[in-house]
C-alpha cells in the first residue's frame, strides 16, 4: 500500500510543491493548512508520516505544539519539520521533542525524498524491533531499573530514529559506548557498520590517517579511513575532547562540506555517515581554555545525551551484578555464584570511580578468585579489600587482601590453570579426552599447558 503522507504548511505554494514532489515518487499525500485541519486529518486516518511547517501563521497552535499533540497521540509517528532559514534553533528543539529530522527552506526535491524515505524506513524498523523484542523477550542491552536508567533508555529510543549527531557525556566507564551502540542498533543504519575511533589512544600523528585513509603517490588507495569504513552507518568518536586542534578543524570541514580528501589524495570523497561523539571531559571548560573548538562542539552536539555515573544510580547495582555474573559465566565458563546479601550491600555502598566497567571487572575477579564452597554465596569477607574496607568492621579484613592485588588478566590465567588442572584430573591425565572435553585441539592444549606451567 502506498504511504500516506500528511503535508502541513500555511503557504499554499509550498504545500502543493511538496505534495507534488511526493506524488510523483508514488507516495499518497494529503494536505492541511493549519493546526486544526492537521489534527482533524490525523484523527480521521493515521498517516505514515507528517511533514510539518514550524511556522503556521494564522493557526491556533504553532508547529511545535502540533508536533507535541501528534507525538502524544502516536509517539512512533515520524515527523519531518520544515524550517525557514534562521530558525534552525527551533528545528533542533523539535528534534529533541521527537521529530525525525528537519529540512531547511529552500530545499531540493532529492533531499526531501531522501529524508522522507529514511524517516519511513526508521519508523518501520523501530516497529519491527519492538515486535521482535516482544516476541523473543530479549532484554535491553542496557541493564538497570532506576529512574535514571529508564530515562536514559527512553532518550536513546527517541534519538535512535533521528539522524542527528549526538554528544554523549558522562564519566569514564559509565556506558557511553554502550549507549552509542544502542543508538546505532536501533537506527535505520543498523545493518551498516558501527566504527569506533578512540581519540585518547590514537596519537595525533596517526589520527588523520585513521580517520581519512591514505592514497599512495599514484593515487591508489593504501588504507581506508574510518569515515569511509562507516559509510552508510555510524562513526563513534570516543573521547573527542582528546582530538588535536588541527584534526578538529578537519572534522569540522567534513561536517560542513560532507566530503573529505584522503591523506596524499587530491580527489574529494563523499560519505554518508552519522557521527556520535563522547566525552568524559567538560568540553565547555576545554573550549574556555582553547583546547576545543566551539564551532565543532555545536556541530557535534546537536543533541546532548548524558549518561549518569554509577553513584547516581546505586539502585541499579544489584541488577547489574546479577547481569554480570551471568554474562561472565556464559562468556568464559566460570561457574555462576550467588552474591550474598552482605556482599551486595558493600558493593552497593562502594563509590565506583570507574563506574559500570569497574563493577563488571570486580564481579569477574570475584567469581574467579573467591574460594570456598562453589555452591555457597560469596560473602562480604571475600570481597577485595579496596571494596570490603567500606564496610565497618571489615577494614582490617585480610580475607580479600589477596584478591585486590591480582590484576584481571592474571586472575583469568589463574582460573584457566585451575580449570584445566581439574579437567585433566577428571580424565585421569588423559590429554586426548581432556582436549575433546574442553573443545581444544590436542596440540593446542599441550601448548596451553606449557604456557600455564602445567606440563
Ligand atoms: N547499564 C548497563 N548495563 C549493562 N552493561 C553496562 C551498562 N553500562 C555499561 N555497561 C558495560 O560496562 C562496560 C563499560 O561501558 P562503556 O565502554 O560503554 O563505557 P564508556 O563510558 O564508553 O567508557 P569510557 O569512558 O572508558 O570510554 C562495558 O562492558 C559495557 O557493556
TrEMBL record:
<dbReference type="Pfam" id="PF02954">
    <property type="entry name" value="HTH_8"/>
</dbReference>
<dbReference type="InterPro" id="IPR011006">
    <property type="entry name" value="CheY-like_superfamily"/>
</dbReference>
<dbReference type="InterPro" id="IPR001789">
    <property type="entry name" value="Sig_transdc_resp-reg_receiver"/>
</dbReference>
<dbReference type="InterPro" id="IPR025943">
    <property type="entry name" value="Sigma_54_int_dom_ATP-bd_2"/>
</dbReference>
<dbReference type="Pfam" id="PF00072">
    <property type="entry name" value="Response_reg"/>
</dbReference>
<keyword id="KW-0805">Transcription regulation</keyword>
<dbReference type="InterPro" id="IPR027417">
    <property type="entry name" value="P-loop_NTPase"/>
</dbReference>
<dbReference type="Pfam" id="PF25601">
    <property type="entry name" value="AAA_lid_14"/>
</dbReference>
<keyword id="KW-0238">DNA-binding</keyword>
<keyword id="KW-0547">Nucleotide-binding</keyword>
<dbReference type="InterPro" id="IPR002197">
    <property type="entry name" value="HTH_Fis"/>
</dbReference>
<feature type="modified residue" description="4-aspartylphosphate">
    <location>
        <position position="53"/>
    </location>
</feature>
<dbReference type="GO" id="GO:0006355">
    <property type="term" value="P:regulation of DNA-templated transcription"/>
</dbReference>
<dbReference type="InterPro" id="IPR009057">
    <property type="entry name" value="Homeodomain-like_sf"/>
</dbReference>
<keyword id="KW-0804">Transcription</keyword>
<dbReference type="InterPro" id="IPR025944">
    <property type="entry name" value="Sigma_54_int_dom_CS"/>
</dbReference>
<dbReference type="Pfam" id="PF00158">
    <property type="entry name" value="Sigma54_activat"/>
</dbReference>
<dbReference type="InterPro" id="IPR003593">
    <property type="entry name" value="AAA+_ATPase"/>
</dbReference>
<feature type="domain" description="Sigma-54 factor interaction">
    <location>
        <begin position="142"/>
        <end position="368"/>
    </location>
</feature>
<dbReference type="GO" id="GO:0000160">
    <property type="term" value="P:phosphorelay signal transduction system"/>
</dbReference>
<dbReference type="GO" id="GO:0005524">
    <property type="term" value="F:ATP binding"/>
</dbReference>
<keyword id="KW-0597">Phosphoprotein</keyword>
<keyword id="KW-0067">ATP-binding</keyword>
<dbReference type="GO" id="GO:0043565">
    <property type="term" value="F:sequence-specific DNA binding"/>
</dbReference>
<feature type="domain" description="Response regulatory">
    <location>
        <begin position="4"/>
        <end position="120"/>
    </location>
</feature>
<keyword id="KW-0010">Activator</keyword>
<keyword id="KW-0902">Two-component regulatory system</keyword>
<protein>
    <submittedName>
        <fullName>Sigma-54-dependent Fis family transcriptional regulator</fullName>
    </submittedName>
</protein>
<dbReference type="InterPro" id="IPR058031">
    <property type="entry name" value="AAA_lid_NorR"/>
</dbReference>
<dbReference type="InterPro" id="IPR002078">
    <property type="entry name" value="Sigma_54_int"/>
</dbReference>
